[in-house]
Specification:
Layout: H1 2-25, H2 32-39, H3 43-49, H4 53-76, H5 82-98, H6 101-110, H7 114-120, H8 127-139, H9 145-164, H10 172-183
Helix pairs in contact: 1-4, 2-3, 4-5, 5-8, 5-10, 8-9
């Protein structure tokens, strides 16, 4: 049990550093040897924790989604109105992804289906976010809150893709109003 906790702690520290590196340099030029050097560990130790660069990137994505989820839950704790919570979700998602614009462009350029694949994986790290959103949607009296939560995620992802393509700005208020209109 102690070994598992130590391994989890090491992974967390490395993922914190990886987050900094990816956001500074982007994903494309980043090599495992660079990551190992920045973390002051051997390349072998890095591969022992993450079997490949792809595995490390998926762990990074899970880590980022978990940070987003914890932040969202923390903000939700001070807000009771489910509509306001949905607005906050959209706003936080857009703010978070604006700070990761180059990473998003790199990810979509190398694998345009990356987010779709992540979303349908058995261990979908975003599912807990969708369940949290589903609870808010059901408080509004909607049925099938989980389906609507996935639809909200898809709609906001579409807004993000348009923004990345240079076809508009990320406007959380507009996206929020459109979603409310869609579900009413």
């Amino acid at each position: 049990m102690i070994k598992e906790r130590i391994k989890a702690f090491k992974r967390e520290l490395i993922l914190q550093k990886v987050s900094e590196l990816i956001e500074e340099r982007g994903l494309e030029g980043l090599k495992m040897v660079d990551i190992a050097a920045a973390c002051d560990i051997s390349v072998g130790a890095l591969y022992k924790l993450f079997g490949s660069k792809d595995e490390l990137f998926y762990a990074y994505m899970e880590y980022q989604i978990d940070l987003f989820y914890r932040t969202l839950k923390s903000i939700f704790a001070g807000v009771e109105d489910p509509k306001e919570r949905i607005r906050i979700y959209i706003e936080l998602k857009f703010e978070t992804l604006q700070s990761k614009k180059q990473l998003l462009k790199d990810t979509i350029a190398t694998d345009p289906f990356f987010f779709a694949k992540l979303g349908i994986s058995k261990q979908n790290p975003a599912r807990k976010v969708y369940v949290l959103l589903a609870q808010q949607l059901e408080l509004l009296g909607t049925h099938d809150g989980l389906r609507l939560a996935y639809m909200l995620s898809g709609m906001t992802r579409g807004c993000i893709e348009m923004w990345l393509a240079g076809d508009g700005e990320l406007d959380a208020d507009n996206a929020y109003k459109r979603f409310l209109k869609m579900i009413s």
